[in-house]
Every structure is written in structure tokens, then in C-alpha cells.
Amino acid sequence: MSFQENYHRICEEIEDIKSRIGVSYPITIVAVTKTFGPEVVREALVAGIQNIGENRVQEASEKFPALSDFQFTRHLIGHLQSNKINKALQLFDVIQSVDSLELAQGLEKRLSRQLPIFIEVNTSQEASKHGITPEQARDLIAQVKEMPHLHIQGLMTVGPLTNDEKLIRQSFQLLKRLRDDVQSWFSYPLGLSMGMSDDYRIAIEEGSTMLRLGRALFGSRTYT
Ligand SMILES: *Cc1c(COP(=O)(O)O)cnc(C)c1O
Q1: Could you tell me the distance, in angstroms and rounded to a whole number, from the CA of residue 108 to the centre of ligand 1?
Q2: What domains can be seen in the chain, in order of their start residue?
Q3: Which keywords does UniProt give here (predicted)?
Q4: Nearest atom within ligand 1 for CA of residue 97
């Protein structure tokens, strides 16, 4: 299926789920273009996608220059190493993977503009995953909230790699509880960036406001 067809089918599906569960807030799609070339990104942008996600600074630096004739929001969704902060700040509009105080401080001290960020939480207890632990998340959010250039847009998580729907749901519910917990600290609604190609339907049911979709939109990736 073409990108257009996948995109329209997923948009309809999102609307169907929203009306079934009775929510009316917007749900943003971030099209995750890692491993795909600029021509694929271009096709998505022409079809109306406004948010693009990449997980590697180096890959984005090779891809984005070829797309300078488009206006779109660039999201870093992968782990950011401190030696790549400067480059990431040149390339990205939103950093979704802020998962430590050190990283937040490293970003803050280099910024002279407002930077929208998400706090990445490890909700699955998988050691291989990045993200602050749920126990430490409140402290990190409280500290980042005081940094003048970092603007917390919400919380982000990667669901567990499993077919067990119950475990996936628990992970998303944990993120939502955390958001609800800290929401009163903020004067605007915090978002929930959760849901990928295999679990976005569950994520919507659990309150997601932002889906990060790769394969569901573009087909399978081939890693070289
Ligand atoms: C790759 C990736 C996605 C998208 O994955 P799909 O399964 O292709 O939808 C979303 N979020 C992060 C952090 C990723 O690295």
C-alpha cells in the first residue's frame, strides 16, 4: 500500500477509536522516518504530515538538508548523548528523549531559544530501554520545569516489546498516571507521546495524544 493509503486508513482508525472511547482532543502523528531516505520523507510531507521523527542525530544531519524546502517539525525520539547536544540543537525542534538531569542541564546551558521537550520515562522495566524510572520522574520534571529554556510538552515512553496486551496497557497507564499526577504543576495540558506501529490502538485507548509511527505508515524497514 502507498503512504497515502496507509496514512488515510490510520487517520480514519484514530477517529473511530476516539469516537468509540469518547474523546475529542487532537492526536498528533509523528511519522518516524529512520532508515528511510529523503524521498520517502518528502512523500509523507506532500501527503500532509507535519511532524517527522528521527532517532539518530547523524542520520538526521544527512537527511534534513535535502528537505529544506519543506516546513515541518523535527522531533528527536532517540537517546541523545551529551557529545551530540550541539548538533541536535541545530537539527531538531523538539527533543522527546530527555531522560536525565545531566542531559537537561546540558541542553539548557547551550540554549538561547525556547526548546519544547518531552520527559522520557521507562515504563516497562526493560533494562535495555532508555528513560528515567517512574520513581525518579517527578523529581526530574520538577527540576526541568524550573529551567528557563526547556518547555515540557509532556511525557514520552516506548511500550514493552511483547504481544501481551495487558503489559502494554500497564505501561501506558503508568505514564498517564504520572502525567495526571504532575498536571496540576502546569498551566497548560501535558501531552502523552506513546504508541508505535504495533501498539498505537492501545495507546489511544489509554490516553495518548501523540503517536510515533514508522512501519504502519511506510512499511517494514531494512537495516543495513
Ligand atoms: C522506531 C521508533 C518508533 C517507530 O517505530 P514503529 O514500530 O516503526 O512504528 C517510535 N518511537 C521510537 C523511540 C522509535 O525508535
Answers
A1: 26
A2: 3-218 (3.20.20.10)
A3: Pyridoxal phosphate
A4: 13
